[in-house]
Amino acid sequence: MSSSLGSEHRFAQFKLVLLGESAVGKSSIVQRFVKDSFSDFRESTIGAAFLTQTVDLDANTTVKFEIWDTAGQERYRSLASIYYRNAQAALVVYDITQESSLDKAKYWIKELQKQARGGIIIALVGNKTDLEQERKVSSEEAESFAKGLGLLYFEVSAKSGTGVRECFKQIALKMPIEDSLRKRRERKSRTVDLNKRPSTNEQQCAC
Amino acid sequence: MAERRPSGINSRRPSVIPYLAGIEKPVLPSIPSQCDVLICGTGLVESILAAALAWQGSRVLHVDANPYYGDTCATLTIEQIKAWCASVNDGSSGFQGFSKAMLHIPYPHRLNSRDYGIDLSPRVLFAKSDLLSLLINSRVYRYLEFQSLSNFHTFENDTFGKMLSTKEEIFTDQSMTLASKRQLMKMMKFVLEYDLPENKEELETHMHEPFTDYVSNRFHLSSQQINELCYALGLAPKPDISTIQGLSRVRRYLVSFNIYGNFPTLYSKYGGPGEISQGFCRSAAVAGATYKLDCALKSFDPDTKTATFEDGSKVKISEKVVCSPSQAPEGSRNVPERNYEITRLITIVEKSCKEWFAEGESAALVVFPPKSLPSNNQFPVQSIIMGSGTGCCPKDQCVWYLSTIEQGERGRRDLESALKKMEESILRESEDGGFDVELTESDVAVQANGGISVINSVKLGKSFKGFVPKEKLTYLLKLMFTQYTSVAPFGVVSNAVFEKAEENDHPGNGPDLKVIYSSMPSTEISYDGVVTEARLLYSKIVGSDDDFFDVDFEDDEDYEHGPSSESAIVDDAEEFQPEMAFEL
């Protein structure tokens, strides 16, 4: 790694998990953030793995989020431990037009407390601000709850796009970038990327 | 069943989140009223099956009686291990297939439950294998992290030796004669070419004779070399294997070399089959499968095609019910015979054990061939060593997984005997430095007496019979148990196992009529056989396995790294299919 003074580009990747009740708009928020699109009919599948999107914090710093959707496994509280493993950020989503969805968000925050690693950045996100006239959860109530627990708090509309990018940018600003760069350097030689094989012409040289 | 919930709440808590008191467990929505296939148990085979079916388009309901994924091959925390042992021993219906769980935790306060991931059936992954191809093809590998494992140690004459497995190692080894090097090279060449037409006749003549006879007659290898071929490279779980079994097993090792680098095997970080199961379950969920833990099957009525769960909920099933024997409903009558045993001893030791690992690695295999232990073991003892770098235990600790297919008290004695040898070895090797200093001061008499210096012999690793360790090895956990399976050692699962239930059906009998049972995890220490079983079950449900994981992810925009070599691996899977089913 050669670095001419100050100009080295910093690139760090973080795992971000989504949590919250079914139908509060978890996938839609990601859809808006990643593809800048919205569909009234929920797409059931977001590819085989997860979506990724980058956020440029400044000219020299890019943060890439690897975003894990629940794939429906939240419905019966059956999220696997690999879901939480090494997650560095979590978006706990509720629907501002449904009072009960904030209570359920509290359940997921508690679940993060049990399953996720320490230091995870959690954002409580109220979705559907485009339905202001149907609002049941006041911003004050949700915000004071979030602040009380030291969580980030945002209100967004996946439908109109309002607030979505800002929400991810604020989370990106909280990510431990230096820490991640150092860890990746240390770990590099030890993890095998199954999709990257060295040249294939000498496969049987053990003989 | 509710008592089995792990109590991990008390352990390490993220500092940023204060404790939230008084939040009730929310009432869950009821399960779907209909599905095509119900699968009970989230073990690896069932999870691969669920994902294959879901991607094929079936509506899959996948449940597990436990509050965690993985079932019989789960990766568990310490608290979960405790609860698991209690359940095994009180014979509660969720744990058919295990017995005699003995758990000893001498210093409970030193174990932080969630720092550990203990595998109930640990395995290693050959770099060229059907499961590895499937992990790539299905993209499930992206949920997991893999690390290399190169060191295969064999215990012989009270010494641990590392198998010479590459050309370079064989050529540079000082202890072998040139003639013996040439024979070993010839042998390895034959292993890779035994199925060529020109070798057909030779193979057919010898394939059913004992591998040891064949190798010693044809290549004049020493008994130690043959042991290494059989039990270290081949990882044979029993003695007296046939020539064809031996050859295919050694080949499995050789062809796996240099696929990803200079090592034959890998393992998934944070836990083996338990982690990989979760990956396939997630894949199944992405494809539309429904997941529910803490959900035990009570009965299945084939006339109304209705499954009833312990909580009273019901689901209509249009196709089949597949169930792991470990999750068979109470009073079930059609669970296949589980005639084979695996005895396991799992320990957590307070030592890094880095002396056993290759450079930059965190795991190793140690194999004790038959009759190499003071207990005069009839069967080999296989052992997987997982250091803290595997994510399964904290720093400066290590998890040792020992297993044998020897049964009952004898099996337990063999494992204890092997454990003792491992303890002696790691104490000796990790003390080398300090040991020298002490000897130079106090062992003048010994050196004057004998011609050979004690220090040198220790350093050369030729013997440690006279070694008295300065320290004792601290065991933080010791767990011994017996697991039963219907897969014969060395065999692959046969279709007959799944058909049994249907053949023996007596209308009106038992709560599990027409339920298809999977096998319990096999005695095999690699993942071989797992995909074969999932495929067989898939064919049984769908009618053929033509479209088993026939998934096209072309439109997955996120898939940006797709190098040209990916297709090569997928092709290899086809090419090497027959040899993975190593019972030819």
Q: What's this, in brief?
A:
Chain A has 207 residues and is α/β, with parallel strands linked by helices. Chain A has helices at residues 26-35, 81-84, 99-115, 139-148, 164-173, 177-187; strands spanning 10-20, 51-58, 61-68, 89-95, 121-127, 152-155, 191-192.
Summarize the structure in words:
Chain A has 6 helices and 7 strands; from the N terminus they run βαββαβαβαβααβ. By secondary structure, chain A is α/β, with parallel strands linked by helices. In chain A, strands 2-3-1-4-5-6 form a 6-stranded mixed beta sheet, sandwiched between helices. Chain A has a single domain (10-202), classed as Rossmann fold (3-Layer(aba) Sandwich), CATH 3.40.50. Chain B has 584 residues and is an alpha+beta fold. Chain B has 3 domains: 31-98 and 120-145 and 268-339 and 484-552 and 563-580, FAD/NAD(P)-binding domain; 166-256, Guanine Nucleotide Dissociation Inhibitor, domain 1 (Orthogonal Bundle), CATH 1.10.405; 341-481, Guanine Nucleotide Dissociation Inhibitor, domain 2 (2-Layer Sandwich), CATH 3.30.519. In chain B, the strands form 4 sheets. In chain B, strands 4-19-15-18-17-16-8-9 form an 8-stranded mixed beta sheet, sandwiched between helices. In chain B, strand 8 (152-156) and strand 9 form a beta hairpin. In chain B, helix 1 (44-56) runs parallel beside helix 10 (273-286), helix 1 (44-56) crosses helix 15 and helix 3 packs antiparallel against helix 16 (565-580). The radius of gyration of chain B is 25 Å and the shape is globular. Residues 1-25, 433-465 and 555-584 of chain B have low confidence and may be disordered. Classes of the chains: A alpha/beta (207), B alpha+beta (584). Chain A: This is DEKNAAC100056. Chain A: It comes from Brettanomyces naardenensis. Chain A: It is a lipid-anchor. Chain A: GO terms for molecular function: GTP binding; GTPase activity. Chain A: It is found in: Cell membrane.
